[in-house]
Amino acid sequence: MPAENAALEEARAAYQQHVRTCRQCHADGAACAVAKHLMRLYNNARRRHIGPPVQGS
What we know:
It is a single chain. The protein is mainly alpha-helical and 57 residues long. It has three helices and no strands. The protein is elongated.
């Protein structure tokens, strides 16, 4: 689990750092293609961290 936490935190930090420093993200007020890709990576890491949904009972 610590490796999954590390991957999740790394993905989050990469996204946040990009948005803070990206000139295009600031100029447009919207996420650029790189920011969207980094957010996708973060979301995938978060899904892996949470795990698959539980089926029926």
